[in-house]
Design brief:
The complex is a heterodimer of chains A (112) and B (112). Chain A is 0% helix and 54% strand. Chain A has 112 residues and is mostly beta strands. In chain A, the strands form two sheets. In chain A, strands 2, 4, 5, 6, 9, 10 and 11 form a seven-stranded mixed β-sheet that branches. Chain B is mainly beta and 112 residues long. In chain B, strands 2, 4, 5, 9, 10 and 11 form a six-stranded mixed β-sheet that branches. In chain B, strands 1-3-8-7-6 form a five-stranded antiparallel β-sheet, with no helix packed on it. In chain B, a hairpin with a 7-residue loop joins β9 (85-92) and β10. Classes of the chains: A mainly beta (112), B mainly beta (112).
């Protein structure tokens, strides 16, 4: 199975600032996904990131707020821009590997 | 809108018993079905992946899929206290769709 790492594992940020979250996979994967899990809630897909193309965002999520990069088949970043306390959440990177879907350990973000 | 429904629980079972977790989904074209285990403060861990009608067994876990009834279940035999977690059901869309829709999860508590 694909092994996924994320940086940072957690952060506390001030309102109005931005944070970039990194996702690294130990093998080449076509499909990478970014999810958000708010406290006590299930997972919500933010966007799908394919290498060499623009990310595809789900309803309610926009590129200006959550810009994504996918420079190669093993790496992606998600930026949470102009943060507010409502952005406090766990952000998870996920990959599709031969039909299986794996998740990274997550980044716990607190916005003050 | 695609929906995935799970009983939120909590579901309590004695140690050694069979735990039965259920999930229904609204999109009749859904192709693949996943069960994840999530411990508090951790990211989802993939347990089972099923895409054909019938049963799929892996150790103490059995996933059951009935596409006609739009129903998927997870059985955990010989439940252990370490199985206490939230179990998330996730469903993909039609063929060619990579979107994974999650249920809200069922909290399982295995009583020693």
């Amino acid at each position: 199975s694909a092994v996924i790492s994320q940086k940072p594992s957690r952060d506390i940020c001030q309102r109005g600032t931005s944070l970039t979250i990194q996702c690294q996979v130990d093998s080449q994967v076509t499909m990478m996904f970014w999810y958000r899990q708010q406290p006590g809630q299930s997972l919500t897909l933010i966007a799908t990131a394919n290498q060499g193309s623009e990310a595809t965002y789900e309803s309610g999520f926009v590129i200006d707020k959550f810009p994504i990069s996918r420079p190669n088949l093993t790496f992606s970043t998600l930026t949470v821009s102009n943060m507010s306390p409502e952005d406090s959440s766990i952000y998870l990177c996920s990959v599709e590997d031969r039909g299986w879907r794996f998740f990274g350990p997550g980044t716990r973000l607190t916005v003050l | 809108q695609k929906e995935v429904e799970q009983n939120s629980g909590p579901l309590s079972v004695p140690e050694g018993a069979i735990a039965s977790l259920n999930c229904t989904y609204s999109d009749r074209g859904s192709q693949s079905f996943f069960w994840y285990r999530q411990y508090s403060g951790k990211s989802p861990e993939l347990i089972m992946f099923i895409y054909s009608n019938g049963d799929k067994e892996d150790g103490r876990f059995t996933a059951q899929l009935n596409k006609a009834s739009q129903y998927v279940s997870l059985l955990i035999r010989d439940s252990q206290p370490s199985d206490s977690a939230t179990y998330l059901c996730a469903v993909t869309g039609e063929a060619g769709s990579y979107q994974l829709t999650f249920g809200k999860g069922t909290k399982l508590s295995v009583i020693p």
